Amino acid sequence: MTTVTIADLDPAQRPRERMLRLGADALSDVELVALLLGSGRRGSSALDTARDLLVAHGGLAGLAHADSAALLGAPGVGPAKATRVVAALALARRFGTSTDRRETVRTPADVARIAGPLLRGPADGRVVAVAGDRASRLLGAVVVPGAVAHGRPFAVREVLAETLRRGGVTLALAHRHDEHEPLPAPADRDATAAVADAAAHCGVRLLDHLVLAGDAWTSVAEAGAARAG
C-alpha cells in the first residue's frame, strides 16, 4: 500500500499553503494539528499522525487537556512535537480568559462562559477559580488540578491562594460532574460554604459555584436559594 505524504498532495491542498491562501479558520482541526506537528512518521504523514492524535483523545476538546507525557505515547510524536502541540493549546486557553479583554464576572452565565472551555474533557477533579476585581472585571481564571473529587476534601487553600495571587477580591468556582445532569450534591454545597467562609476571612467574596455536566450547568447559589424558598 502506497503512503500519501503531504509532499504528494497538490500544492494548493497542502495545509501550509491553504492557510496562507485562505487563513487559519478555513483549515480543519486535523490540518491545524498537522501544522503544529510539522512532520509525520515512517509510513504516515503529519496529517495521518494528527488524525490519530485527535481520535485517540476524543477530538480537540480532549487533546486540549492532554499533557506532554500523554502525547509522547503516540507513534511518531517526540518531545519537540508534543511540547509544540501542548504549548499552542495552552495559549489558546489563556487567550480565552485573557485579562486584556476585560470581561466581567457578574452572573452565573459569565462564570460558565469563562470556566467552561477550561473544563472540557473528563471530570477529573479540576476546579476553575475565576478571580475578579472590585468592579467585577476578570483578573484571571486558573485551573486548580485535583481540587475536588469524590471522597477528597475541597482544596480551599489552593483555590484562595490562586485568587489572591491575582489580586482578586471576588471569586467564582466551577467544576465538572460525570453525571448527565449538573445537579449540585450535598458535598458541593458544603464545599461552597467552606470556601465562602474562608474567602471572607481573606477579604474575598465568593460570587458563585457552578456545577457543569456536558454543555449544561447549575449555580449552587441559585439552587440553594430555590431549596430555601
Task: Estimate nothing, just give the exact number of structural domains.
Answer: 2
Strand percent estimate = 5-15%
Oligomer: single chain
Give the distance, in angstroms, between the N- and C-terminal Cα atoms: 68 Å
Reported for the largest beta sheet, the result is:
5 strands, mixed
**Strand arrangement across the biggest beta sheet:** 2-1-3-4-5
CATH topology description of the largest domain: Cytidine Deaminase, domain 2
Mean pLDDT: 83
Per the principal axes of the C-alpha atoms, what is the gross shape? elongated
Output the number of helix runs: 10
Spatial extent as radius of gyration:
21 Å
Keywords: Hydrolase, Metal-binding, Metalloprotease, Protease, Zinc
Family: Belongs to the UPF0758 family.
Protein name: DNA repair protein RadC
InterPro entries: MPN, RadC_JAB, RuvA_2-like, UPF0758, UPF0758_N
